[in-house]
């Protein structure tokens, strides 16, 4: 069953979706980008408009200058009369310049414009001023750029150009600016909505899957879209984590099943023995014997327990911090020395081949334990069965970037199809369980090897078993560090 | 010997104290860390047996407080945490030996007696003598009834450890820890083979047996005259 999908903040109502969207990081980011983009495009458009206006102004000034030059030429050649006639003729043409000539009293002598201010108040030079065409009502004000000249005998000449064109252009750019800003906001808003919706959908997928996992179904995996984007990478990592958790949980479940099974048997034996003694033992001797057996049985139980704890600790990686540079060759020699008398007593050919300087990052106690486990095994199961003299060969060699610690015997060996299972907890080749043992030795050794970043290999010694611990060697650079 | 047992489990504490008393020692019992520290500071004990997890003040903190007061009384730590790093932590805090629960009482007794002996100045002797067996640490020489016995280095250390604890039970685990410096339990009887080799070298026909096997506990070198 799925719990009703509810907004984490408990937001409900008509615009809950939008409000929730507005709170997302994706939306906020999009909004910020939008704002920045709008400001930039505003600045660019403004700059464009300002530049066009400047260009237009320069152009207008230039045409006025040219016109003035032409008028001056006429004036020089034909005097005032020629100037007036030229002005009159040109003033009648459509789209002409603005002309006005006033005398020293301020009365208009000729021209095609009426000023809205007294002509004499206007000083010579460039100016922008309002004017009217003579056949227009006075209410229609036009703007023009004008150059004012003082001619001899107090005459003033106004030559100008209407600015309507310029203001129309300005209007156009203004409208374009507004429109483009509106477009930016609209498109940007849509983009933000789209991106946010997409991100929300992905996040929602993750949230839904994790909710399903939290309800106890660990088989769910986060969706991966194969776009290899950051969400995919996140999902893949989380999926790997889930895989690892799943493995650990399966391991734990198996372990507890095995513990329950394998501890129950000796516990039952212990209990039965005690019950039996309580019922039957009549003499002190008998009772003592039964108690001794009970103690032995509980010691065995404790060993199983210890080994299991050790495996669990090694596998959890808790001990990884206790690794230090250790000479594995020396360690192997020490173990050999410990076991040599025992091997001799068992009538085995005992050989040791240890290279010097086999440094590795290791926990010497755990490695010693692993090696001694292997040697114990070889002594227990490695005796030749057809009466030939058995052998036990211990070697420590460097092999490329790793160190091989091998313990080889001439026993019956382990058939290839059993080499994987025999490393598992409580698995014993000897199914009758006639020889003493816990069935935990090899799995402990394998766990220790894994803790050291290595592995336990079981090879054929033709005949016999060669158990090899492959441990990464310490490189010189690390050694000196 | 006066021994202080600091153990919060009443049943286990009483059992240990009673067993120590029956072995000829005087054992006091404290049931939490504070009381244990008080008693250890007030009384003069030869050995302390301290559980690691205690109410009011844990075992390690008790030992550290004791050492801060310059008390050198040897301490045997008892703990249900038998892992590598836990033992190192315990010894670093100032403990002298570490025993993992559950333990056999013989093991505990042997270690307590060995610890008490360590306090004894005689333990740092240069030569050891048990009956007519003599060991010279400086000259690295061993002789029985005046006759030199050549020994391998390890055999020498084994004999040295046994002779330093002459008259005391030494368990197989103690030998493994102190002579070989291994802190794990081999599944096979390796130690027995080493001891029997040593025995074949130091025992002589017609002379009294010195190196004894104590059933269910370990070994002991003993002067038959004492």
Q: Which shape of chain B, going by the Cα principal axes? A: elongated
What composes the largest sheet of chain A? Answer: 6 strands, antiparallel
Classify the oligomer: heterodimer
| Distinct helical segment count of chain B | 8
Give the strand order, joined by hyphens, for the main sheet of chain A: 2-1-6-5-4-3
What order do the strands of the largest sheet of chain B run in, or round the barrel if closed? Answer: 2-1-3-4-5
Net shape of chain A: rod-shaped
Q: What distinguishing features does this structure have?
A:
heterodimer; A: 481 residues; alpha+beta; Beta-Lactamase; Helix Hairpins; Heat Shock Protein 90; 3 domains; six-stranded antiparallel sheet; 13 strands; 17% strand; B: 226 residues; alpha/beta; Rossmann fold; Arc Repressor Mutant, subunit A; 2 domains; five-stranded parallel sheet; four-stranded antiparallel sheet; elongated
Structure summary:
With 481 residues, chain A is an alpha+beta fold. Chain A has helices at residues 16-23, 25-92, 164-214, 230-280, 284-316, 328-345, 364-381, 441-451, 476-480; strands spanning 98-102, 108-111, 114-115, 125-132, 142-151, 155-162, 324-327, 348-354, 359-362, 390-399, 402-409, 455-460, 465-472.
């Amino acid at each position: 069953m799925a719990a009703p999908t509810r907004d984490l903040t408990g937001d409900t109502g008509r615009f809950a979706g939008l409000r929730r969207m507005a709170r997302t990081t994706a939306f906020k980011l999009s909004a910020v980008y939008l704002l920045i983009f709008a400001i930039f495009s505003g600045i660019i458009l403004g700059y464009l408009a300002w530049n066009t206006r400047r260009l237009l102004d320069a152009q207008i000034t230039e045409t006025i200058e040219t016109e003035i030059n032409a008028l001056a030429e006429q004036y020089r050649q034909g005097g005032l009369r020629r100037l007036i006639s030229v002005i009159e003729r040109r003033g009648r043409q459509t789209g002409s310049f603005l002309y006005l000539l006033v005398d020293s009293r301020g009365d208009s002598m000729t021209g095609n414009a009426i000023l809205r201010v007294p002509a004499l108040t206007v000083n010579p030079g460039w100016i922008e001023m309002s004017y009217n065409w003579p056949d227009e009502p006075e209410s229609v004000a036009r703007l023009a750029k004008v150059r004012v000249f003082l001619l001899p005998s107090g005459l003033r000449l106004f030559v100008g150009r209407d600015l309507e064109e310029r203001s129309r252009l300005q209007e156009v750019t203004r409208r374009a600016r507004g429109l483009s800003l509106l477009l930016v906001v609209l498109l940007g808003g849509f983009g933000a909505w789209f991106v946010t919706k997409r991100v929300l959908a992905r996040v929602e997928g993750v949230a839904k899957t994790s909710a399903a996992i939290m309800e106890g179904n660990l088989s769910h995996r986060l969706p991966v879209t194969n776009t290899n984007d950051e969400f995919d990478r996140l999902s893949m990592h989380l999926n790997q984590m889930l895989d690892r958790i799943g493995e650990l949980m399966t391991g734990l479940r198996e372990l507890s099943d095995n513990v329950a099974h394998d501890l129950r048997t000796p516990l039952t034996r212990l209990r039965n023995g005690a019950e039996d003694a309580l019922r039957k033992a009549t003499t002190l001797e008998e009772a003592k014997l039964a108690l001794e057996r009970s103690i032995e049985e509980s010691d065995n139980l404790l060993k199983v327990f210890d080994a299991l704890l050790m495996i669990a600790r090694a596998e959890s990686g808790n001990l990884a911090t206790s690794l230090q540079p250790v000479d594995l060759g020396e360690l192997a020699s020490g173990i050999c020395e410990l076991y040599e008398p025992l091997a001799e007593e068992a009538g085995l050919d005992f050989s040791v081949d240890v290279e010097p300087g086999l440094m590795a990052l290791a926990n010497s106690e755990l490695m010693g334990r692993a090696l001694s486990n292997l040697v114990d095994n070889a002594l227990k199961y490695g005796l030749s069965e057809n009466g030939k003299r058995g052998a036990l060969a211990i070697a420590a060699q460097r092999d490329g970037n790793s160190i091989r610690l091998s313990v080889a015997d001439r026993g019956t060996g382990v058939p290839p199809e059993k080499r994987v299972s025999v490393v598992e907890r409580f698995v014993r080749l000897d199914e009758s369980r006639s020889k003493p043992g816990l069935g935990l030795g090899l799995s402990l050794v394998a766990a220790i090897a894994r803790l050291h970043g290595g592995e336990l290999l079981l090879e054929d010694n033709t005949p016999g078993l060669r158990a090899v611990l492959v441990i990464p060697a310490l490189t010189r650079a690390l050694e000196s560090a | 010997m006066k021994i202080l047992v600091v153990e919060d489990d009443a049943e286990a504490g009483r059992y240990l104290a009673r067993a120590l008393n029956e072995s000829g020692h005087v054992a006091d019992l404290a049931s939490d860390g504070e009381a244990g520290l008080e008693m250890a500071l007030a009384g003069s004990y030869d050995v302390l047996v301290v559980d690691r997890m205690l109410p009011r003040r844990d075992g390690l903190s008790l030992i550290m407080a004791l050492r801060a007061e310059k008390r050198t009384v040897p301490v045997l730590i008892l703990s249900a945490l038998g892992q590598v790093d836990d033992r190192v932590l315990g010894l670093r805090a100032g403990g002298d030996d570490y025993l993992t629960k559950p333990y056999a009482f013989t093991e505990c007794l042997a270690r307590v007696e060995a610890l008490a002996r360590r306090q004894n100045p005689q333990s740092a002797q240069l030569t050891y003598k048990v009956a007519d067996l003599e060991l010279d640490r400086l000259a690295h020489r061993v002789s029985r009834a005046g006759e030199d016995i050549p020994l391998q280095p390890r055999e020498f250390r084994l004999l040295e450890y046994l002779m330093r604890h002459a008259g005391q039970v030494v368990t197989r685990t103690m030998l493994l820890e102190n002579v070989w410096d291994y802190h794990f339990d081999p599944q096979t009887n390796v130690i027995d083979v080493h001891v029997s080799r040593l025995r074949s070298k130091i025992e002589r026909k017609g002379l009294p047996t010195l190196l004894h096997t104590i059933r269910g506990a370990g070994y002991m070198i003993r002067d038959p005259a004492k």
